[in-house]
């Protein structure tokens, strides 16, 4: 284990940024989101949750896939290069690190998404243990330990120092190139870990019971009469999907610039009425069907196809941000009793 005093943290950022592009939580116009570090940036590593997760760095909200241009009777095809810039992302919380494992299941399965794979290979993930989880957090329900946040390098804040420990070979190689670090002892982070464990015990959602809600629950839950009431006030705004670190749906669209056709992909939301619309129309015609799809996918269909892994990590973003205060916790509580019958 190594450490650096927090009053020298800018040196640490500079050292990392000298190695590769560095992304970390930055405060801008009152909101904290991952952004590229440069000297003088307003870094906020105390913010528990960025508004959007670090998912954008591996699966951007919008990206070009290919462009077409007519040259006489010929079509010229211009495919962008595979992303190859080495980068590091610092300040990833344990829930968001687990979310990357969910995304890996989707994008690294055959057929592999080569853009995502390139970014995963080029990115070093430096996680940060939580110090002050919020009442909306329920990561422990999914077996996530915020004191052991994983990634390529794990870090902890304690007693005015940032402690660092390599988790993977990639993380070890990255740390070896950073100069301003001092040697430290594992015992030095124990007070911080104990304080976090005590806070986790007090969180109101820590006992959310998912018993019976799993990959085998399709028959019991799909036809539940509760979906109508649960979805009644849903605005179909898609906020819950855009801020979710595990949501992975996208659309592919063409845009005519007047000189060429640019084909790009962009995040999409199963909460939208035109999501996966085909020539015959939308397969889910009502908001109740779309609402059900989102929660059945996270809690039933995904675990059914991924060795029991849920597609929710309990980050609590949707709990905090849904404008009608509807969320996966309320759905799980409402359907739990039915699932356990
Ligand atoms: S559940 Fe909430 S955040 Fe999600 S689409 Fe409905 S209203 Fe919007
Ligand atoms: S469903 Fe909600 S709590 Fe679960 S990972 Fe997505 S945003 Fe976080």
Portion of residues within helices: 25-40%
Q: Major sheet: order of its strands?
A: 3-2-6-7-8-9-1-10
End-to-end CA span: 49 Å
**What's the helix count?**
11
Structural class determined from secondary elements: alpha+beta
- Chain-averaged pLDDT: 95
Task: Indicate the radius of gyration in whole angstroms.
Answer: 22 Å
Instruction: Give the total of beta strands.
Output: 12
In this entry the ligands are: iron/sulfur cluster
Tally of domains: 2
The outline comes out as globular
Beta-strand level of the residues, as a percent range?
15-25%
Largest sheet: 8 strands, mixed
Question: Gist?
Answer:
This protein is an alpha+beta fold. The chain is 31% helix and 21% strand. The strands form 2 sheets. Strands 3-2-6-7-8-9-1-10 form an 8-stranded mixed beta sheet.
Describe the 3D structure.
The chain is an alpha+beta fold and 341 residues long. The chain has 2 domains: 2-202, no CATH class; 218-339, no CATH class. 31% of the residues lie in helices and 21% in strands. β4 (62-71) and β5 (74-78) form a beta hairpin. It is globular. The chain starts with a strand and ends with a helix. The structure holds iron/sulfur cluster (2 copies). One iron/sulfur cluster is lined by residues 234-240, 271, 322-324, 326. Keywords: Iron, Iron-sulfur, Metal-binding. GO terms for molecular function: iron-sulfur cluster binding; metal ion binding.
């Amino acid at each position: 284990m190594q450490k650096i005093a927090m009053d020298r943290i800018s040196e640490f950022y500079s050292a990392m940024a000298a190695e590769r592009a560095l992304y970390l939580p930055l405060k801008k116009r009152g909101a904290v989101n991952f952004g590229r570090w440069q000297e003088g940036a307003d870094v906020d590593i105390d913010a528990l949750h960025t508004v959007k997760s670090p998912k954008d760095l591996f699966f951007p909200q919008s990206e070009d896939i290919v462009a077409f241009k007519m040259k006489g009777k010929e079509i010229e095809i211009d495919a962008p290069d595979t992303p190859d810039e080495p980068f590091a992302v610092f300040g990833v919380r344990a829930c968001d690190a687990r979310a990357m494992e969910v995304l890996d299941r989707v994008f690294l399965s055959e057929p592999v998404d080569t853009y995502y794979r390139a970014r995963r290979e080029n990115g070093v993930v430096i996680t940060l243990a939580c110090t002050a989880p919020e009442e909306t957090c329920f990561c422990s329900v999914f077996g996530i330990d915020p004191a052991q946040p994983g990634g390529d390098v794990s870090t902890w804040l304690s007693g005015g120092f940032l402690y660092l420990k390599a988790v993977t070979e990639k993380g070890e190689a990255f740390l070896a190139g950073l100069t301003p670090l001092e040697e430290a002892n594992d015992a030095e982070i124990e007070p911080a870990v104990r304080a976090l464990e005590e806070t986790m015990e007090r969180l109101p959602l820590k006992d959310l019971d998912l018993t019976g809600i799993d990959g085998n629950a399709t028959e019991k839950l799909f036809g539940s009469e509760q979906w109508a009431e649960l979805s009644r006030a849903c605005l179909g705004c898609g906020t819950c999907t855009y801020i979710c670190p595990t949501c992975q749906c996208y659309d592919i669209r063409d845009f005519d610039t007047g000189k060429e056709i640019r084909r790009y992909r962009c995040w999409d939301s199963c909460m939208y009425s035109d999501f996966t619309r085909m020539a015959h129309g939308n397969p889910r015609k009502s908001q109740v069907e779309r609402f059900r799809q989102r929660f059945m996918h996270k809690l039933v269909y995904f675990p059914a196809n991924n060795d029991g892994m849920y597609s929710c990590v309990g980050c609590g973003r949707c709990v905090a941000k849904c404008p009608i205060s509807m969320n996966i916790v309320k759905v799980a509580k409402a359907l739990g009793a039915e699932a356990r019958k």
